[in-house]
RNA sequence: GGCGGCAUGGCCAAGUGGUAAGGCAGAGGAUUGCAAAUCCUUUACCCCCAGUUCGAAUCUGGGUGCCGCCUCCA
């Protein structure tokens, strides 16, 4: 089985064959750093993170480059609005980007070039295009001449002759007057008075938007790369222009595979900056949605399809993540060890059933990253583990349960979930970004008492445990007296005051867990002794 | 006007020729004083019409509806 990917360039799904066996070069269009990242970025970069993780897991040596566009009109506007500088705005948003991506468990790119750091390559490329007659300068601007480039429009399926009239009048008259063709686009823009600018053979100015990607791809990865990634909104004009520039300069195909992710809607409406209805990643996480919930939500749909963010959808994903989380957690609770396996190491010896599930997972991922189908396998793998988790949670003693098949199942499950899909316990609880304290969405319960669990000192913790224990004792007595109103009242008190939940198990034993408690407290009426599992 | 995409159960969403994965929600049952968790069982004539085929959600033609891009945008 080989990986099959839908290539925008050919509009077909075909086998992925890298240029060099065993190696994959990927360029992913990054962000313009004038603001915080929004859900569209999250969707896109989660999808590409999974592509990358899957390739790595399959044994490829992947080089992943993603740019920062840190020269741009909108950054300038933002800087002017806040009395700051372009560099300051960029720096701040780059830091935010890094934090947001880490929070979502998105692997950092191998290299992240910036436009400001690539000016040499950009100027060289423009010069080359000019020398080849593919570009012309006009009043300090330099434009790419689309008519000089055969094949312009091949990515987006546009025909220059047909499109010409439709495009008229879409750009400012001034700029229009300098262009020879409406689709010609700026490679270099002359500086306007008061703007920061960079020196160039054409006078002071700054690069156009598209040229930086062409220059960076070439500088970082070479003339032809394996995979070029981006949002569907970039197909035209950005990627079309990128192809034109690069291929006019090198005479080689820019990328063998062009992959584009579908757009994000919010409650059925297109999300866009111009409509002002975008939600930042931070705002969503701050609202109590866990990073892994967001990740699961994104991966439940195919990356090429539009994705509608709704409160209901996120809630469903949160419940789904709870299930996966329980299954991930159970092995750790039982002290099981992760296997350091990957597809490249060859399959570990698996039971027949597990081997089938593993190969189904691979088949799904091979089919243009069908994460939805892959997740179905993951949920199937998790089912018996959830059963184990359920028994553990309700206080049943299964410490001795070292069933080999279950352990193996857990190891496979963890491997696929964490390594390939990036759905990870550690990422949910450990890797903290702003506003991402809780691994579970239900952790955002009333009272906010949960937050104290990490800061409380030992004495305080003992005090709380003792109080909880006393309440458990009283509740046990109330149950014995069949005074269920009081018993329920105590349950409510524990939730309200400490965010602690109670689980009754056979034998009248009650376990209190979560919230302000660092360790579970249990009460056994037959023993009257405290235990902390 | 040009290019492209999508229409599957209450919601989300796979499936691209052999009688419909998975998640959420719901129902019934086991367990429970009640909860929680878990387990079992259960819920679809795949937008419409015509055609191809032994057989279609899946292919072809037509229709209807929705959406994206064509302007900065992941």
Give a structural overview.
This protein has 533 residues and is an alpha/beta fold. It folds into 3 domains: 19-270, Rossmann fold, CATH 3.40.50; 288-432, Isoleucyl-tRNA Synthetase, Domain 1 (Orthogonal Bundle), CATH 1.10.730; 447-531, no CATH class. The chain contains 18 helices and 17 strands. It has a 4-stranded parallel β-sheet with strand order 4-3-9-10, with helices on both faces. Strands 5-6-7-8 form a 4-stranded antiparallel β-sheet. The longest helix has 23 residues, at 311-333. The radius of gyration is 28 Å and the shape is elongated. The two termini are 46 Å apart. Mean pLDDT is 86; it is low at 166-171, 430-455 and 529-533. It binds one RNA strand of 74 nucleotides through strand 3, helix 1, helix 5, strand 9 and helix 8.
Indicate the topology.
Layout lengths: L3 E4 L4 E4 L7 E10 L6 H19 L3 E9 L3 H9 L4 H18 L15 H13 L3 E4 L2 E4 L15 H8 L5 H6 L6 E6 L14 E3 L1 H13 L3 E7 L3 H16 L4 E7 L2 E3 L2 E2 L10 H6 L4 H9 L7 E3 L1 H23 L18 H15 L4 H23 L10 H17 L4 H5 L22 H4 L2 H23 L3 H15 L2 E5 L3 E5 L7 E3 L6 E2 L2
Parallel strand pairs: 3-4, 3-9, 9-10, 11-13
Antiparallel strand pairs: 1-2, 5-6, 6-7, 7-8, 11-12, 14-15, 15-16, 16-17
Helix pairs in contact: 1-10, 2-3, 4-7, 7-8, 10-11, 11-13, 11-14, 12-13, 13-14, 17-18
The protein binds one RNA strand of 74 nucleotides through strand 3, helix 1, helix 5, strand 9 and helix 8.
């Amino acid at each position: 089985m080989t990986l099959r990917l839908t290539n925008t360039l050919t509009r077909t799904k075909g086998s992925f064959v890298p240029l060099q066996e065993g190696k994959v070069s990927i360029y992913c269009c990054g962000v313009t750093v004038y603001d915080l990242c929004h859900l569209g970025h999250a969707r896109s970069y989660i999808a590409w993170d999974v592509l990358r993780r899957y390739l790595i897991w399959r044994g490829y040596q992947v080089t992943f480059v993603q740019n920062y566009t840190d020269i741009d009109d909108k950054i300038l506007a933002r800087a002017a609005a806040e009395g700051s500088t372009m560099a300051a705005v960029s720096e701040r948003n780059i830091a935010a980007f890094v934090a947001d991506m880490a929070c979502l468990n998105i692997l950092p790119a191998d290299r992240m070039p910036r436009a400001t750091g690539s000016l040499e390559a950009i100027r060289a490329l423009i010069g080359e295009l000019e020398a080849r007659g593919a570009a012309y300068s006009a009043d300090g601007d330099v434009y790419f001449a689309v008519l000089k480039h055969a094949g312009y429009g091949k990515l987006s399926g546009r025909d220059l002759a047909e499109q010409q009239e439709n495009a008229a009048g879409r750009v400012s008259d001034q700029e229009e007057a300098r262009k020879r063709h409406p689709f010609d686009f700026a490679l270099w823009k002359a500086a306007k008075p008061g703007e920061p600018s960079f020196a160039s053979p054409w006078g002071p100015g700054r690069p156009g938007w598209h040229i930086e990607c062409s220059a960076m791809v070439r500088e970082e990865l070479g003339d032809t790369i394996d995979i070029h990634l981006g949002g569907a909104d970039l197909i035209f004009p950005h990627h079309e222009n990128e192809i034109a520039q690069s291929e006019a300069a090198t005479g080689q195909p820019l990328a063998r595979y062009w992959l584009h992710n579908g757009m994000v809607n919010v409650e059925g409406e297109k999300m866009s900056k111009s409509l002002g209805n975008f939600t930042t990643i931070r705002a969503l996480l701050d609202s109590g949605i866990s990073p892994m919930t967001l990740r699961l939500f994104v991966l439940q749909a195919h990356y090429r399809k539009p994705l509608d963010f709704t409160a209901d959808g996120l809630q469903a994903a949160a419940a789904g993540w709870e299930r996966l989380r329980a299954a991930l957690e159970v092995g750790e609770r039982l002290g099981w060890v992760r296997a350091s396996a990957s597809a490249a190491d060859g399959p570990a010896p698996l039971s027949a059933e597990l081997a089938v599930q593993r190969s189904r997972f691979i088949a799904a991922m091979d089919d243009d990253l069908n994460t939805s189908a892959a997740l179905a396998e993951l949920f199937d793998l998790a089912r018996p583990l959830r059963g184990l988790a359920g028994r553990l949670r309700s206080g049943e003693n299964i410490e001795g349960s070292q069933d080999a098949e279950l352990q193996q199942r857990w190891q496979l499950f963890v491997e696929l979930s964490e390594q390939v899909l990036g759905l990870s316990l550690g990422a949910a609880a450990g890797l903290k970004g702003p506003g991402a304290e809780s691994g579970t969405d239900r952790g955002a319960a009333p009272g906010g008492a949960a937050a104290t669990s990490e800061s409380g000192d030992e004495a305080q913790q003992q005090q709380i445990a003792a109080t909880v224990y006393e309440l458990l004792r009283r509740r046990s007595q109330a149950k014995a007296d069949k005074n269920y109103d009081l018993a329920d009242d105590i349950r409510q008190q524990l939730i309200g005051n400490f965010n602690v939940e109670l689980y009754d198990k056979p034998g009248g034993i009650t376990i209190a867990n979560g919230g302000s408690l660092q360790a579970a407290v249990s009460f056994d009426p037959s023993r009257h002794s405290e235990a902390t599992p």
